[in-house]
Design brief:
Layout: E1 9-16, H1 23-44, E2 48-58, E3 71-77, H2 80-91, H3 105-108, E4 111-123, E5 133-140, H4 147-169, E6 173-184, E7 193-199, H5 201-205, H6 207-212, H7 222-225, E8 228-238
Antiparallel strand pairs: 1-3, 1-4, 2-3, 2-8, 4-6, 5-7, 5-8, 6-7
């Protein structure tokens, strides 16, 4: 079985269904998405190797209403050519488009709010099984950050901060990504960096208690201390 976040690139699609959508319509939407649409996307886009769906479990605790769509689909791509090829097809109005199966009513009323491609920077370990949930943190460094400051930021983030968050949260793996291409994201735009921490069922259920009891995290270099966190979100994997 392919494991989540094992490929060098990933394409995200985030959607919101209308809040008044009833249970039966949501079930139809989710079944169609998982069993029909995701396999069609993987089959019809060169270099796409895996599609996984998630549902928002914990929104951003700061109450930001402009981030964190309810439904997130993550499509993993096997390399730079796949990412650039998808972007080129997206940008070319004359390019042929795959013929996808007609969507159910709840899909037709849904709003797409995220579309981005990310490039993997670092991973803490090899996954042994798909995560039950993922904790995602999106952040920016100051716009005037120079190369030396960025190098310090990345060194600290990968080698100090990610391991500390993993220990405190009981996460099985931590992955870092940098934005490759933004197609759609609410203002003021998609963050440049994203960290994804993978949790099993036990860590997912204990996430609030572990977070409350976590030791203080280390201070970092100046660029780290000036970073801006755009969103903190927890998603639970939707079973295929």
């Amino acid at each position: 079985m392919q494991q989540a976040f094992s490929q060098p690139y990933m394409y995200w699609v985030g959607m919101d269904t209308p809040p008044e959508t009833d249970t039966a319509a949501l079930a139809e939407f989710s079944q169609f998405y998982s069993q029909v649409h995701v396999p069609e996307v993987v089959a019809n886009n060169p270099g796409f190797v895996l599609g996984t769906r998630y549902e928002l479990l914990d929104p951003d605790p700061r109450g930001n209403p402009h981030c964190g769509p309810r439904w997130l689909a993550v499509y993993e791509m096997d390399g730079d050519a796949a990412a650039k090829g998808y972007a080129a097809r997206n940008d070319d109005p004359s390019a042929s488009r795959p013929a996808y199966t007609a969507r159910p009513p709840a899909w037709q009323k849904a709003q797409t709010v995220w579309r981005m491609i990310w490039r993997q920077l670092a991973s803490s370990a090899t996954a042994s099984q798909p995560p039950e949930s993922i904790f995602m943190v999106g952040m920016n460094v100051p716009s005037n950050t120079d190369a030396a400051g960025l190098a310090e930021f990345n060194e600290f983030y990968t080698n100090i901060h990610v391991p500390e968050v993993m220990r405190g949260g009981g996460y099985a793996r931590g992955n870092r990504f940098e934005l490759h291409r933004e197609f759609l994201h609410p203002a003021p735009g998609c963050p440049r960096f994203c960290a994804i921490y993978e949790a099993d069922a036990a860590a997912t259920d204990a996430r609030h208690e572990r977070r409350a009891g976590r030791a203080p995290l280390s201070s970092g270099p100046p660029t780290w201390e000036k970073h801006d966190t755009v969103w903190r979100l927890v998603y639970r994997r939707v079973a295929a």
